[in-house]
Amino acid sequence: MDKSLISSKEAFSKAAFICSKSERCASEIRKKLVDWGLEKYDAEAVVDQLKNEQYIDDKRYAKAFVREKFKINKWGRTKIIYHLKHKGLSDNSINVGMDEIDENNYIVLLVKTMKDKAKSIKSTNRFEKMGKIIRFTQSRGFEPQLIHKYMNEVVK
């Protein structure tokens, strides 16, 4: 068995410092700990200690992630949920995070995104324009049923 490159105590201190600078989820820290040379069992113990001392809180992380991706990156729900699941967050943590999105603000962002895209499309063919708007807004993570619901507001 290889000797760890770092002790559990050192790993905890290093991870706590990282977590105190910005929100991190358990899976990100767990991966870092293993990369630093901790055995999986020891890494899990450090993650548990970080959770107990509230350096890591996946629900708090999900809320911060959702706020950032919605307000700054202007992503839709589908894309945000996909990325949170990819990070290994529980459905419960994801749902808590998704509660950060106000429904009215979500619709306003969707319509604005669609209108901005419509302005940049050179095509005069209505259906071609609609297709490009649909593909673009879906790539941003907005739900097809909402895109179709508000399409007539955008393409007259």
Characterise this structure:
This protein has helices at 8-21, 26-35, 40-52, 58-71, 77-86, 91-98, 103-120, 126-139, 144-154. It is built from 9 helices and no strands. α2 packs across α3 (40-52) and α4 (58-71) packs across α6. It is mainly α and 156 residues long. The mean pLDDT is 93. The protein starts with 7 loop residues before the first helix and ends with a helix. It is elongated and about 65 Å long.
What brief labels describe this structure?
156 residues, elongated, mainly alpha, 0% strand
- N/C terminus separation: 68 Å
Number of strands: 0
Low-confidence stretches: none
- Total number of helices: 9
List the helices and strands in order.
HHHHHHHHH
Q: Give the helix level as a range of percent.
A: over 70%
Structural class: mainly alpha
Range of strand content: under 5%
Radius of gyration: 21 Å
Rough shape?
elongated
| Mean model confidence by pLDDT | 93
Give the biggest beta sheet: none
